[in-house]
Each structure stands twice: as structure tokens, then as C-alpha cells.
Amino acid sequence: MPFKPVEHPKCPKCSKSVYAAEEMLAAGQKWHKTCFKCGLCHKSLDSTNATEHGGELYCKQCYGRKFGPKGYGFGQGAGTLSMDTGAHLGNTETQMSNKPTDPNYG
Ligand SMILES: [Zn+2]
Ligand SMILES: [Zn+2]
């Protein structure tokens, strides 16, 4: 078993180590108290009113304004990554079809 130095979790906001004395928890990540602010109105947050979106924290008011009210239909839940190729519109991707095969690859 390799020796592993103690690693402090990195604050998603400023990418610096977060120590226990200053950590705030949101979205399964640890943030500095000083970084635990709404990205829009810069109001200080706590774990009860902070909402994380794309590595940024928002208060509930700003989140609602920016991303719409909950229960709107789209974009609910975490990790919904939409890759719309437009295939349903009749678009077809043909860029891959003329790629030469390299016998030395692999
Ligand atoms: Zn930070
Ligand atoms: Zn706000």
C-alpha cells in the first residue's frame, strides 16, 4: 500500500485547500466560509440556503431567477448533460465517415 500524504479537499471556488476550521459543505464539496457566497448578489450563504450550479454557489433567490423555478420541467436534478445533435431535426453527422484507418494505431 503506497504512502499517501494527507490531502485537504480543494475549494471548488478558489481551488485552494479547505481546512476543517473554515469548511462549509454544499453539493458534496467543501468550500471556504469566505467563498461560500452567492455568485450573483454575493450574499453570505449557509448550508441551508446555498444552491450549487456549475461550480458556483447561489442563494435560492438568485438561483430561481437565473435557472428558473423548481418544477419547471427541464433541467431538474444534477448531472443532466444535454448533447443535442439535432438528429431529430434531420441533421446528420458525416465527419467521421471519411476518416482514414491507421493500421499502426492501437
Ligand atoms: Zn475558497
Ligand atoms: Zn444571490
Automatic annotation (TrEMBL):
Query: Does the record bear Zinc in its keywords?
Result: yes
List, as start-end ranges, the regions of compositional bias called Polar residues: 91-106
- Boundaries of every LIM zinc-binding domain copy: 9-69
Encoded by which gene? LOC106470570
UniProt xrefs under Pfam families: LIM
Gene3D superfamilies, alphabetized = Cysteine Rich Protein
- From what superkingdom does this record's organism come? Eukaryota
Task: Identify the keywords attached in UniProt to this record, alphabetized.
Answer: LIM domain, Metal-binding, Nucleus, Repeat, Zinc
Per its UniProt record, what InterPro entries does this chain match? Znf_LIM (IPR001781)
Name it: Muscle LIM protein 1-like
CDD domains xref list: LIM1_MLP84B_like
Q: Which residues form the signal peptide?
A: none
Residues of the region (Disordered) are: 85-106
Task: Please tell me whether the keyword Repeat is annotated for this protein.
Answer: yes
| Compartment(s) | Nucleus
What organism is the protein native to?
Limulus polyphemus (Atlantic horseshoe crab)
Q: What is its main location?
A: nucleus
